[in-house]
Amino acid sequence: MRGERTIVLLKQFLGDGVMAEPLLTVLAENYSYVDVLALPPVQQVLGQLDGRVSFIHMEKMKTLRDTMRQARKVRLKGYDVAFLVNRSFRSAILARLAKIPIRVGHGTEGRSFLLTRSVTYRDDDFEAVSYADLALALGIEVRRTEPVLRVTTSEGEEGTRAAAGATVAIQPGARHDYKRIPTDLLAHVGKALQGRGYGLVFLGGPEEASYGEELAKLLPEPVVDLIGRTSIRQTLGVLSTLKAAVGSDTGVMHLAAGLGVPTVTAFGPTPAVKWGHHYAPHQVIQAPESDLARLDPDLLLRAVLKALGEP
Questions:
Q1: Is 82 in the same domain as 170?
Q2: Can you tell me the distance from the alpha carbon of 273 to that of 196, in angstroms, rounded to the nearest whole number?
Q3: 20 to 30 A Cα–Cα from 103, which one of 52, 130, 174, 304?
Q4: Predicted confidence pLDDT, tens digits, the chain (311 residues)
């Protein structure tokens, strides 16, 4: 067990937190002291690591003054090693200002001169593999790069109650419109699933509520609409009880994949090679010309039925 005081600077989105799990797990196995600087939503995603690592609240760093303030707080901890999962120039400035002797990160945004170990970032590597490269730079092998998330028994039980008998999750919305599968395409899938007796549950953030309402109107049977009504841990609890999840490249789909729930994830402009879970039981679909409006609804439906073990 290495004795250096270690800090990991994470990115801010749910998918980034999911992808960082293999790295954080191996760092917790190799270092006796690991702190993780992250925003609260990412901390919730990685709640299973509580007790193995310690989470520090990351302040939003919109200005240089914000960055300097955060750096002063980090410096007081006396860290020996920093792993910069966050690839921004600002995160490298933070680590440098905090006077952390060993600073390992990807040489992106022209920040290599601020790092003591600059790692090549490859656009065609699975994101979790890119994060694992940071540990490898210090001689630590990450043996597993497929993210694994867990829920507690009580979270699973609460999820079962909230799902109210639904067995397939659909995320009708997305943070960005270019990531959203058109409602009529999801309606095609939803109608077919309901026709086969599957109950549907909608998941997503509060800003996506209108898309769920729009989709629900196009379906012949009622759905369990939990959009904006569950915390991240509650969303994980619901997902853990399901047979499959379908949606676009969003945080919810990464949560489902981390739990091992079979996923069907459609990609538009976002590179599927980087962010897609290309391993069983998950399926990745790249939309023609990177346009989700051109997605074949029958192809999407066949993939979901395959995930459910249907002919």
A1: no
A2: 32
A3: 52
A4: 888 999 999 998 999 999 999 999 999 999 999 999 999 999 999 999 989 999 998 877 778 888 899 999 999 999 999 999 999 999 999 999 999 999 999 999 999 999 999 999 999 999 999 999 999 999 999 999 999 999 999 999 999 999 999 999 999 999 888 999 999 999 999 999 999 999 999 999 999 999 999 999 999 999 999 999 999 999 999 999 999 999 999 999 999 999 999 999 999 999 999 999 999 999 999 999 999 999 999 999 999 999 999 97
Cα-to-chain-centroid distance, residue 180: 16
Strand partners, 202: 170, 225
Domain co-membership, 90 together with 220 = no
Within-domain flag for 144: no
User: Which residues form the domain of 19?
Assistant: 2-136
Confirm whether 145 is domain-assigned.
Answer: no
Token code pair at residue 132:
């694992």
Sheet with 54-57, side-by-side order of all strands: 54-57, 31-38, 2-9, 81-84, 102-106, 117-119
